[in-house]
Amino acid sequence: MMPSLAIPLAGFLLLVLPTGGLCYGCAVTEKERPRVNSLLNKIISSEDTRTGLNPSILIALRLAGSHNCNVEESLLQRLSQDAVSHAKESYSSGKVALSIMAQLASCVNPRNVSSSGSTINLVRLLEQKYQDELQNLKKYQAPLTSFYQLSLDVLALCLAEGKFSTADAANLLQPDKDMKKYYLGQFSVDTAAVSILAQVCLKKMTLTPKVKKEIRKNVEQLVQTIMNHFHNGVLGNMYSTGLAMQALTVSGIQWNCRESLKMILDQIHKGTFDLPMAASQIIPSLEGQTYLNVIGLNCSADKDDIIPTPSPPTRPRLIHVRFTYENSSWGPYITSVQGLMADNNQRTYWQLLSGNIPLDRGAGNYIVSNKERLEVRYSKY
Ligand code: B12
């Protein structure tokens, strides 16, 4: 790989690479499309998509260039049914935000989501849950969930034209000096990426000059820090690269997008994005799309051009120690080890490490090698 060189330019970062052209975002070429389609095929054939309730998957399918209308319609129906039944009581703010984006991407008004004769206004619900997050932040200096979810909240409220203060949002999404508060103890490219998407969306609203300036400064700083985590096409790690590519695209920065795209394409056949959740976060970037495009899609123009071909079931690869877990969009999330329970309210979790380096995936997807020393560490974030 050729080395890259970062040169700060007028307070902004321009990444200069010795080979390949600079561009503002990119998408796969026609020749590369079969690799995206193989990933889409995996998603639409997976159990998570056919029976699960993951709004990120629907967003990705809607932003894709090829479609399977039955699969998308059935997922939309299940998500709507679940939202009317459970969103109020059991959804986190970020889950409501993703649900809104999935409805918008399906050309459904998120203020009027209905199923089995019941209706829910997801935008109003998010306005309330976002206020609860802000109150918690004020009282305990920590959100109820995370800054990742707060960023999703602002993004969805902006896209759905909900009621919220843009001045508060700009202030909330301002990165702190050491980038720690924002990102669960250490800088998170994923969180920074969603925060940029949210703030670029805010730019389209009516803002005071002060807020406008603040947002520009926040975005510049976040872009710069993401670029500091650019390495051989990877932005952060492989699983943050998709969101980071979206963020860099909407921020208007020039960077070697092709290098990132090529890196992802090379990883597809290695199975790196086989988990539908991982695929869902990478597909928009491969298609040259971003979460800001969930509004204004022309749903009636979709052609039904992907036929699911179920792949053989994969062997479960759970690591066998005595533990409990909860199923989440990313697979099994370890909640307790030998009786000691992690607690989100106390900001504790079981961190997975190999040779003192945190794993970049969970217990359900990590392949252990012979003689590898794995550690599960009770940690604070
Ligand atoms: C916030 C966050 C956390 C928080 C979650 C608690 C909290 N208060 O929110 C903390 C810091 C505890 C955490 C832990 C881990 N995380 Co994390 N996390 C995220 C992040 C930034 C946002 C998730 C989110 O809020 N989504 C939005 C809400 C609405 O969706 P949700 O489905 O309800 O979210 C829940 C799950 O995502 C779950 N969760 C979070 N991380 C992980 C990781 C795994 C493997 C599982 C199964 C579940 C899970 O917690 C969320 C809140 O309840 C994502 C980034 C991303 N791109 O998605 C990474 C991300 C999901 N995490 C990741 C990883 C690797 C981990 C760890 C395995 C790290 C480690 N080495 O220990 C551990 C999990 C270990 C375990 N006990 O099983 C990877 C997963 C990649 C993959 N292919 O599996 C991501 C994509 C980050 C990255 N780019 O590498 N994480």
TrEMBL record:
<feature type="domain" description="Transcobalamin-like C-terminal">
    <location>
        <begin position="327"/>
        <end position="380"/>
    </location>
</feature>
<dbReference type="Pfam" id="PF14478">
    <property type="entry name" value="DUF4430"/>
</dbReference>
<feature type="binding site">
    <location>
        <position position="381"/>
    </location>
    <ligand>
        <name>cyanocob(III)alamin</name>
    </ligand>
</feature>
<feature type="binding site">
    <location>
        <position position="359"/>
    </location>
    <ligand>
        <name>cyanocob(III)alamin</name>
    </ligand>
</feature>
<comment type="similarity">
    <text>Belongs to the eukaryotic cobalamin transport proteins family.</text>
</comment>
<dbReference type="InterPro" id="IPR027954">
    <property type="entry name" value="Transcobalamin-like_C"/>
</dbReference>
<keyword id="KW-0964">Secreted</keyword>
<keyword id="KW-0171">Cobalt transport</keyword>
<feature type="signal peptide">
    <location>
        <begin position="1"/>
        <end position="23"/>
    </location>
</feature>
<dbReference type="Pfam" id="PF01122">
    <property type="entry name" value="Cobalamin_bind"/>
</dbReference>
<protein>
    <submittedName>
        <fullName>Transcobalamin-1-like isoform X2</fullName>
    </submittedName>
</protein>
<feature type="binding site">
    <location>
        <begin position="350"/>
        <end position="352"/>
    </location>
    <ligand>
        <name>cyanocob(III)alamin</name>
    </ligand>
</feature>
<feature type="binding site">
    <location>
        <begin position="333"/>
        <end position="334"/>
    </location>
    <ligand>
        <name>cyanocob(III)alamin</name>
    </ligand>
</feature>
<dbReference type="InterPro" id="IPR051588">
    <property type="entry name" value="Cobalamin_Transport"/>
</dbReference>
<keyword id="KW-0170">Cobalt</keyword>
<feature type="disulfide bond">
    <location>
        <begin position="26"/>
        <end position="257"/>
    </location>
</feature>
<feature type="binding site">
    <location>
        <begin position="145"/>
        <end position="149"/>
    </location>
    <ligand>
        <name>cyanocob(III)alamin</name>
    </ligand>
</feature>
<feature type="binding site">
    <location>
        <position position="281"/>
    </location>
    <ligand>
        <name>cyanocob(III)alamin</name>
    </ligand>
</feature>
<keyword id="KW-1015">Disulfide bond</keyword>
<keyword id="KW-0732">Signal</keyword>
<keyword id="KW-0406">Ion transport</keyword>
<feature type="binding site">
    <location>
        <position position="190"/>
    </location>
    <ligand>
        <name>cyanocob(III)alamin</name>
    </ligand>
</feature>
<keyword id="KW-0813">Transport</keyword>
<dbReference type="GO" id="GO:0031419">
    <property type="term" value="F:cobalamin binding"/>
</dbReference>
<dbReference type="GO" id="GO:0005615">
    <property type="term" value="C:extracellular space"/>
</dbReference>
<dbReference type="GO" id="GO:0006824">
    <property type="term" value="P:cobalt ion transport"/>
</dbReference>
<dbReference type="GO" id="GO:0015889">
    <property type="term" value="P:cobalamin transport"/>
</dbReference>
<feature type="disulfide bond">
    <location>
        <begin position="158"/>
        <end position="201"/>
    </location>
</feature>
<dbReference type="InterPro" id="IPR002157">
    <property type="entry name" value="Cbl-bd_prot"/>
</dbReference>
<feature type="binding site">
    <location>
        <position position="237"/>
    </location>
    <ligand>
        <name>cyanocob(III)alamin</name>
    </ligand>
</feature>
